[in-house]
């Protein structure tokens, strides 16, 4: 681990932070170009051709970053979220198509899973109470991440199965905390709210509940107009309206699989094994079967929640251990993330020590 820490520090010192600043400067410059181009270029193919170079640029920029946190989140924000939002913007749909949106809000809306804050009194009261609950929730989850990081020191005693279960919670807590930090920044600068990425996915009672309402909610809302709704309209012409959602659901999982493979390539820079694809295709097929059964029984029978809940969460964790986490291990995701935590801690410690020494040296000279 010590060698990995020094390697991470070396990477950061040799330009990761510098590259991160340059990448995001390029992102904001390109999005500013899209913002002003949208004022003059009509929607449809002309606007799509106008933003197409930016789409290509956003696929290339994550290749200039190598750390799990800076590189991984940048890839998710621009190669996936921003590109999909720009595709909607080209056809005058989605959050970027509102002509009243200012340039700063356009930039934040494009890059992050953001929604504009509602200013009604009732919603403000509800958000205030929810914000207090969220603050406590994030504090607990941050503490749990610390416990998880310490648990990795005892991997030999814990065993591989339990370690992979810990991976599940590490990824969930880590992503949610990072996005909460971005939400705080957006709220402070522009008074806008990030869409919640998660809604207690461990309480899911079905795959439809897990993927549609609890896990990665913003991605679901992006995939719906980009993939689900066009395929739904197309399939409605070939089958009964009742069954038209089934191919649309599967197509959505297919696109999600492709985007996850891309993100993992950015993280590891290794040739994909397509286990991630098989994970999402398996869940797509299972969700299609689940929806078909629900339509067939039409609410006449269902599992009680105390049965369906553990079955759903168990299925997600088991298939994740089988198909998802091997790719994470292959790109050394956890080891690199832990090394980055340690490197950040060492950096903060060194800065703190330097700040304490400065007044001492000044007193000595005096």
UniProtKB/TrEMBL annotation:
<feature type="transmembrane region" description="Helical">
    <location>
        <begin position="248"/>
        <end position="267"/>
    </location>
</feature>
<feature type="transmembrane region" description="Helical">
    <location>
        <begin position="273"/>
        <end position="293"/>
    </location>
</feature>
<feature type="transmembrane region" description="Helical">
    <location>
        <begin position="20"/>
        <end position="38"/>
    </location>
</feature>
<dbReference type="InterPro" id="IPR044851">
    <property type="entry name" value="Wax_synthase"/>
</dbReference>
<comment type="similarity">
    <text>Belongs to the wax synthase family.</text>
</comment>
<feature type="domain" description="Wax synthase">
    <location>
        <begin position="195"/>
        <end position="281"/>
    </location>
</feature>
<dbReference type="GO" id="GO:0006629">
    <property type="term" value="P:lipid metabolic process"/>
</dbReference>
<dbReference type="InterPro" id="IPR032805">
    <property type="entry name" value="Wax_synthase_dom"/>
</dbReference>
<keyword id="KW-0812">Transmembrane</keyword>
<feature type="transmembrane region" description="Helical">
    <location>
        <begin position="305"/>
        <end position="325"/>
    </location>
</feature>
<keyword id="KW-0472">Membrane</keyword>
<keyword id="KW-1133">Transmembrane helix</keyword>
<feature type="transmembrane region" description="Helical">
    <location>
        <begin position="70"/>
        <end position="90"/>
    </location>
</feature>
<protein>
    <recommendedName>
        <fullName>Wax synthase domain-containing protein</fullName>
    </recommendedName>
</protein>
<feature type="transmembrane region" description="Helical">
    <location>
        <begin position="135"/>
        <end position="152"/>
    </location>
</feature>
<keyword id="KW-0808">Transferase</keyword>
<feature type="transmembrane region" description="Helical">
    <location>
        <begin position="158"/>
        <end position="184"/>
    </location>
</feature>
<keyword id="KW-0012">Acyltransferase</keyword>
<dbReference type="Pfam" id="PF13813">
    <property type="entry name" value="MBOAT_2"/>
</dbReference>
<keyword id="KW-0443">Lipid metabolism</keyword>
<dbReference type="GO" id="GO:0008374">
    <property type="term" value="F:O-acyltransferase activity"/>
</dbReference>
<dbReference type="InterPro" id="IPR017088">
    <property type="entry name" value="Wax_synthase_Magnoliopsida"/>
</dbReference>
<dbReference type="GO" id="GO:0016020">
    <property type="term" value="C:membrane"/>
</dbReference>
